[in-house]
Amino acid sequence: MFVPHTFVTALFMMIASTICWGSWANSYKLTKNYRFELAYWDFSLAVFLTSLLFAFTIGSTTAGEHSLIQNLHAAAASNLIYAFIGGFIFNIANVLLVAGIEITGLAIAFPLSIGIALVEGVILSYAIQPKGNAALLASGVAMALLAVVLIGKAYGSLPGSDKAFSRKGVAICVVSGFLMGAFAPFNARALTSAHPLTPYGIDVLFSFGALMSCLAFNPYLMRRPLIGAPVRFSEYLRATPFQHAMGLVSGLIWGIGMAFNLVAANLVGISISYAIGQASPMVAALWGVFAFHEFRGSSARAKLYLIGMFACYMLALFLISRANQSS
After folding, report:
1. How many Å apart are CA 163 and CA 167, to the nearest integer?
2. What distance in Å separates the CA atoms of residue 270 and residue 249, rounded to the nearest whole number?
3. Which of 52, 225, 265, 297 is the most buried (most CB within 10 A)?
4. Is 299 helix (H, G, I), strand (E, B) or coil?
């Protein structure tokens, strides 16, 4: 089983996780007139298949207790359940995040939702696994929280938006954020409790929980959508190969980020690995601003708030990475 043995290697994996988690939605954005409820079927399947790919390759480089099958047999049943529940919760949060992206755009939805999740997830994970310098970690979380406030200010400064629709988008992102922050403590339990899962075992159970959540939650969302008219599964079957491919690519990218984040957490702890990974809004906002031009024509005030958000996230990333080295 591959795990990092130095902080530099773990930091590389955490930064790669940040890039993946901030970029996966771009694939969906490239599909035109394709409902996110339909794309999400391919996304969830790809996340699960990616976890299996990692588990049966670098996650099973040696036989014995750390190979996937042996670890699943040896791990406590409660840890299997923790990882599964974490994935189930994540899926609901992520569907809401995609809905928020549809309404508010990448540059707003990601920082708002994931910023809230970062604060909640780090605090709860640290309570379970107190690893790292608490003062530096708290300072980093405070900077991330300030970034959330600034992106909200930037959104409020955008001209010409439907205020009622905007409030709905913000509300969806906030709910997504609170749910997104709730999955990290379950992963921390599965990694640190007696008879734990390996990072690769957690990844498989987590992604399986997400897939089962999709099977349970997505049909309801198709019948009672947050945006637009109800959609039928037959429309998924009629989707173009390109639309299916983009859904699969988005799940592959997210799944790589998840695997890297969990493997890095094996060395630095869930709270630090999760926090650095959840700096992904900075990456998503860059895509939204420069690739999709979501702030074109915005006021100088909105742009100033956006710059402040980037600065706060960069400082949060620095403080959280220092939290491990100063512990």
Report:
1. 6
2. 26
3. 265
4. coil
